[in-house]
Amino acid sequence: MKKTHYLTATVPEGNRLDRQAFLQLPIEERRRILAEQAEALQSCYREDPDWKDWVDFDNGENDLKSDLENE
Fold first, then answer.
1. Which of 5, 17, 57, 70 sits a CA distance of 20 to 30 A from 24?
2. Which domain of life is it from (predicted)?
3. pLDDT at res. 68
């Protein structure tokens, strides 16, 4: 089975939905699909050093997190 990339997760070819088709699905089905994609991407975000560097980037300016901590 050939696999293609959708967002950054792999899905079997033929299982891709366009935006409009996705929005036509029942909400329970959309939630199930999104939960599967989140699970598939979880390890990518936790283990990717480039992503961690980007998330932990500090440019010396206050950000929302710092602002909330200082309240």
1. 5
2. Bacteria
3. 55
Q: Which residues contact 12 (CB under 8 A, 6 or more apart)?
A: 1, 2, 3
Q: Summarize pLDDT for 11-60 with one digit per residue, the tens.
A: 555 567 788 888 888 999 999 999 988 888 887 777 777 766 666 666 66
What pairs with residue 39 in β-bridges? Answer: none
Tokens of 19: 């935006």
pLDDT above 50: residue 67: yes
Question: What stretch of H or E contains 60?
Answer: none
Cα(21)–Cα(51) distance, rounded to whole angstroms? 30
Tokens of 43: 């390890």
35-45 in b/e burial notation, b at 16+ Cβ within 10 A?
eeeeeeeeeee
